[in-house]
Amino acid sequence: MVSDNEIIRNAIALVNEGMRVTFPVKGYSMLPFIIGSKESVDLVKPDKVKVGDVVLAWVEGCRYVVHRIIRIDGDRVTLMGDGNIAGVEHCRTDEVAAVAMAVVDTRGRHHPLYTPWRQHASRIWWRLLPVRRWILAVYRRTWLRIALRMS
């Protein structure tokens, strides 16, 4: 059996060769914008990362995550999952392995991540951090349950 880290390393190798790689996402740390275990992301080689980018990064020297960049200070990057209510991860810019360009749904449709409305929605979502706990609770009990049943 192939380990998750081996799959990730192979995906990164393909991205570094200039290929676009569709990569499955696990967990719910990127709700409501990416539904783990249901949707995937299209990854490309990072050029210059910026705040707001969703990236695949090696964090804290121990694991890979697909999270959004919330701050860049020099070569130090701070990441946080959209579905998280607390806690951040840190890495260096050279530990950002790929940038997600689109979300791929269960039907194989690609939804670009950086359209004006998605960027606006992610900025609003960031401002809602103090009340995310309640919004996510309602989301998980209603829309997410419905979406998972439909797949």
Percent range of helical residues: 25-40%
Distance between the termini: 26 Å
Overall 3D form:
globular
Radius of gyration: 15 Å
Structural class: alpha+beta
What portion of residues belong to β-strands?
Answer: 25-35%
Question: What is the residue-mean pLDDT, rounded to a whole number?
Answer: 92
**Uncertain regions: pLDDT < 50 for 5+ in a row?**
none
Element pattern in H and E = HEEEEEEEEHH
What attributes does this structure have?
eight-stranded antiparallel beta sheet; 8 strands; alpha+beta; globular; 151 residues
Give a short synopsis of this structure:
The protein is 29% helix and 31% strand. It has three helices and eight strands; from the N terminus they run αββββββββαα.
Explain how this protein is built.
There is one protein chain. With 151 residues, the chain is of the alpha+beta class. It has three helices and eight strands. Strands 1, 2, 3, 4, 5, 6, 7 and 8 form an eight-stranded antiparallel sheet that branches. Strand 7 (96-104) and strand 8 form a beta hairpin. It is globular.
Summarize the topology:
Blueprint: H1 4-16, E1 21-24, E2 40-44, E3 54-59, E4 63-73, E5 76-80, E6 89-92, E7 96-104, E8 110-112, H2 116-127, H3 132-150
Antiparallel strand pairs: 1-2, 2-7, 3-4, 3-7, 4-5, 5-6, 7-8
